[in-house]
Design goal:
Largest sheet: 2 strands, antiparallel
Distance between the termini: 37 Å
Shape: flat
Number of strands: 2
Mean pLDDT: 88
Oligomer: single chain
Helix content: 25-40%
């Protein structure tokens, strides 16, 4: 089965803005940061 990682991005209103499922630990932070910067 292994480890299943999920990341939730929460907007300023406290709502879930995006869900990343089955992420890999190494490239994931850069992916989230790039998405957040592009939405700003």
């Amino acid at each position: 089965m292994g480890i299943n990682r999920t990341t939730f991005v929460i907007d300023p209103d406290g709502q879930i803005a995006k869900i990343y499922r089955k992420v890999k630990a190494e490239p994931h932070p850069a992916e989230v940061l790039a998405d957040l910067v592009s939405q700003a």
